[in-house]
Structure formats: C-alpha cells, structure tokens
Design goal:
By secondary structure, this protein is an alpha+beta fold. It has helices spanning 26-30, 53-66, 75-88, 129-135, 162-174, 235-238, and strands at residues 6-9, 12-15, 33-35, 38-42, 48-50, 94-102, 115-122, 137-141, 179-183, 189-192, 196-199, 202-203, 246-247, 257-262, 267-268. The chain binds pyridoxal-5'-phosphate. Pyridoxal-5'-phosphate binds next to loops.
Length: 272
Amino acid sequence: MEKTERIWLDGKLVPWEAAQVHVLTHTLHYGLGVFEGIRCYQCHDGRSAVFRLREHIDRLYGSAHVLELAMPYPRERLVEACLETVRANRLRECYLRPIVFMGDGEMGLAARPATRVAVAAWPWGAYLGDEGMKNGIRVKTSSFARFHPNTLLTKAKATGHYVNSILASREARTAGYDEALLLDVDGYVSEASGENVFVRGALHARRGLPGGRGVLHRHGGRGDADPRARRPAHRRRHAGADHAPPAGPLLRGRARARGALSLLARVPLARC
Ligand SMILES: Cc1ncc(COP(=O)(O)O)c(C=O)c1O
C-alpha cells in the first residue's frame, strides 16, 4: 500500500509511522471493532469530494451502537477528522478508513477498555484491479455461508465479521476466480466478500441479513426505502442469470461479474 504522511489517531494527526497500537489491544484479540470504507474522488472541476461522508459516519456510529462501543467523539468531529486527514495528506483521490476499536489495558471478554478511533487515508485504485473494471471479474459462489443474524450482529460493519469474507475470498482466489459471492444460510444471495451485489439496480440481499445494514453504494439503483430496491435471489434464480455487478467503496465504482459465477457447479453470469 502507498503510505501517506499523517493518520488521525485519537483526536490528533500523527505521522504515519507513529500511528501504532499496543499488542494487547483488545480488538486485535477478539475482533470487536467497527470501520468504514469511504472514497474521495476528484471531480470534473478539479476539486475533491468525499462520497456520502456523513452517511458513512452515521453508519459507523450505528455499527458502534449495535456493538455497544462507546464513541468518544460527536459525529461532526469524525466527519471533520476524515476531511482533515485528506487535506493533511494533500490527496486528490483516496480511500478513507475510519476505524473504531477497543484499546489496551484490560483483557478478557467482559472487558470494555476505552474506545479508540483512527482515520487513515491513502491512494487505493480499483480493488479488483483496472483489468477487472474494464473486462469484468470472475465470481465464484463460496462454500462459506454468510453468517446468520443469530450468529453475529449483521447490521454492524465489524472488523471480526471479515474473517468470513477473507475465508470466502481466499477460497475463490485459490480456485482461480477474482471474487467470492456469499449466500446466506438459506441459500439466498447475500453479498460478495467485499461488495454488495446488484442486478439491474436492485440489491440482491434479504432484509435483516448481511447487506441489510445500510447500503451506501448503489450506482444508479433505487433508494433503500424503495422495496423494489431489494430483490432477494435464491441461488436457483441465478441459474442462467447473465450479470451481477457488485458495488462498494473498495471497487471504486463497480465491476461487472463475467464468465462463470459458480453456484456450486457453474452458472454463467456474463454481461451487464
Ligand atoms: C462485505 C461488504 N459488503 C458490502 C460492502 C459495500 O458497502 P457500501 O454499503 O458502503 O457500499 C462492503 C464494503 O466495504 C463490504 O466489505
């Protein structure tokens, strides 16, 4: 990754190398932290703009609330921290990563050490590569199911939840694909390992399941309040489907799924 000069840590911009945590940081051990992925784009007039900054910060606070992480700052302070971090690093375009985690000093599952907050920003191109943006990606349906709301609080964008994504992503890449599509425990399309899945503007996820947390990148799709914006899709519906563009801040826009979207065996997903 490309280093930048400063990271906002616990209220101050510090040099990149100084943004360190102790090895006994609680979140490092048990995975209870929350974060966001936000994009800052350079606009046609040359100025930079952060995409839905306020909404991302609201979702961050929502995630923290669900997991009972006490936020040490008001929302406005974090909105400002994101902007300060972009400016301090003189970035025209970048990825922004606010993260909220439990610090050190107490260990064990019942501990609630003080919440710490960091915001880092760095240039990050298309997550699945420029080639993927241009020509599409190959997506494999994962053998790992997206976790059930009775397993984890799926509304939260939590650090520990990403173990599930990493397992799915590794499995897909090892099998020669670019990305993994995760189904929920009932076999409905949930989301990709790092993106939502849309088909013709409609989010493929069931309400209350992963992706049921607020969705911020929809690329021309309908609003969250519109019931047509969500179209639960069982894997059997994908048989013969021809496209499923995943979208999210990591992708920097959206990528098309191409080639075989393997639903256990192979189900073709071609153009979008
Ligand atoms: C697992 C997962 N799903 C979906 C998304 C897309 O999120 P957003 O609602 O910000 O577009 C992301 C982005 O980081 C993600 O990691």
